[in-house]
Amino acid sequence: MIATIISIVTAVATTNAVPPESTWWPSDLPPRVGTPLVETDEQHDDRMAWWRESRFGLFIHWGLYAIPGGYWEGRRTGGAEWILNSVKIHPDDYMPLQQQFDPVDFDPMQWVMMAKNAGMKYIVITSKHHDGFCLWPSELTDFDVEGTPFGRDILGELAEACRNEGIVLCLYHSIMDWTRPDYLPRRAWDDRPSDGADYQRYVAYMKGQLQELVDRYQPAVLWFDGEWEGTWTHEDGQAMYDFVRTIDPAVIVNNRVDTGRTGMAGLTRSGGYRGDFGTPEQEIPATGMPFGVDWETCMTMNRSWGYQSFDMAFKPTEDLVRKLVDITSKGGNFLLNVGPDERGRFPNESIERLAEIGDWMQVNAESIHGTFASCFTELEWGRCTRRNLADGDQRLYLHVFESPTTGMVRLPGLLNAPAGRGAYLLADPAVGPLAIERDGADLTIRLPDGMVAGIDTVLVLDIEGPAIVVSAPSIDVAEPVFLESTELGFSAASDRVEIRYTLDGTAPEIGSTLAGDSPVEIRRSATVQARCFFDGSPVGTIATTALRRVEPLRAVQTLTSRPGLRWTTHLGAFERVADFADIEPSAEGIAASIDLSMQPRPENFGIRFTGFLEAPRTGIYRFSLDSDDGSRFILGDAVVVDNDGLHSALEKNGVIALEKGLHPLRLDYFEGTGQDDLILKWSGPGFELQPIRPEALKR
Ligand code: H79
């Protein structure tokens, strides 16, 4: 069935694969490429190319909320673009703001120039935020800019200014809509009857509006948000992604179109969720992502997205530039926000910062645009970004945040030889070549005398071939626990280093056992430590893994076993998995598989499943428990996965050795508010990670 659906979808996508009328595209970015809905990896790379190369964009939050600017009835609310929700304003009291919207200072060319001069390549503006107000004249609603005293087509004028200046226009579009009568759920204080409300009609309205937006402005990215209320489902998300990619095959869509976002960290969890890039909000991932995972951190300059005159907590320019560099060095994009005021002006603090970022970019943009993630896990003195050169060599941009007191920057574990013109200052190539020395596996570069790093001084270093960096070796083992024996392997980034290891918890030395090509058999619990050596000297840090030999959990004998699990549901505003045994069930029954079909209401409930899990063979099993909100999975007396607590979708894993046969099972789950989900998968001897099939569940 799935195959048929895919082929139908492909057919639709290819027959409609005529990009909306648009001959315009910035000449300094890779082309905008339309691809079929089911893409090859290469087609996907082509479609993403301009976005990946851009690295830096401007977010604009603008709408009716700029008029109150965070104040309501003379009080500072801090609500900004959320003011309707924060202050519990009735739509009847909020919507009349439309009659006051007259941003006479709106100057789209000035906005675009401020972004462009800051080194930004694209702008994402709110076509519609959660309040439902539309910044373009929409055929489908009167709650739009056309019904304001201002009357002008804001998106249209901005699109034109973008075209004139070679900036890519993108649109933020909220799924959540607090004023549209068909949208559900209603806010608690919004007494408009929901009897006549029709959520699917709301979805159709949204699709109609997106069609208008694509036809009128050809946004290059559609940036959805407000997907987390229970009414928007995974099916809605898939359908919306497929819809917008079908009407514009080149469009790039963020992961908030679907329900696979992991909280504010924003990356897409596994399981077939739609979305071309992850969306960390107000945070930067601690480490880079595996190559090929696209993400964009969106962040405010002060604390607010929408305009609030009293929010003076602006981040210093140095911080903003370093955040851009940090994000780029981890392979992400930076979408930095400005909230224009009710007259259409950027706050002065934002203007100043954009100009100062521009001063840095004027000199250093080459180290940002078109570059990709660092080859180092950590550099004490700053960050690294990279570019491939035409001849197969690579260029490293070394971003010095703090000048080391030694006067040298160290590139730990970089085995490549320098190439080309050696090392020099990006801001002034005449300062160079700087002295480069090899120190074991490291390269060092001498900084110019008296250099002060400032915001970020960038050095350029060309190297022969793609970077080869050795750090800790990886210890390859199936699972950290085993029954009788397990096999241990080692690998490093280059075969020019030796790997030496110990099994007794001591640090590997030059005299420790040398890892060979064949795996090592382990029969007893051990603490494995391994380290790389280059030219007889240790390189990078020590990798360590504890391996534990265990006895399998004993299976139990039961006289009868029937298919399915028992479940009980419990009502209450839980914030943790409670001891549901002490709480009177609201209902009980038998379930063939683990899902939420028996949920007693959309929010504030718990479910307990009990029964037995049948392990097909004696061996090591891994369980993956993904829930929103919390859950806990127990076999016998062992808590296998504890995923408790109030949180959004979160996956946790646990490993346990099981004897063939039946094991008492308990799975507790609770849902506070928002989205709900409960997915338990397992892998075991001879089978890959998969949902637990009904045959394995007994009572
Ligand atoms: O448009 C700006 C904000 O108005 C909007 N997103 C940015 C780009 C925004 N909406 N809500 N929030 C920011 C914070 C809300 C977070 C939560 Fe949730 C929503 C907490 C629980 C539900 C989504 C799901 C984030 C974590 C889990």
| Low-pLDDT stretches | 1-19
CATH fold naming of the largest domain: TIM Barrel
Structural class: alpha+beta
Query: Span between N and C termini?
Result: 32 Å
Radius of gyration, in Å, reads: 28 Å
Q: What's the structural domain tally?
A: 4
- The CATH superfamily name of the largest domain is Glycosidases
Report the top-level CATH class of the largest domain: Alpha Beta
Q: Can you give the mean pLDDT?
A: 94
CATH architecture heading of the largest domain: Alpha-Beta Barrel
Largest sheet: 7 strands, parallel
Strand order in the sheet with the most strands: 7-6-5-4-1-9-8
Number of helices: 10
CA-based shape:
flat
| Helix residue percentage | 10-25%
Beta-strand share of residues: 25-35%
Quaternary organisation of the protein chains: single chain
**List of distinct ligands in this structure:** ligand H79
Extended strand count: 35
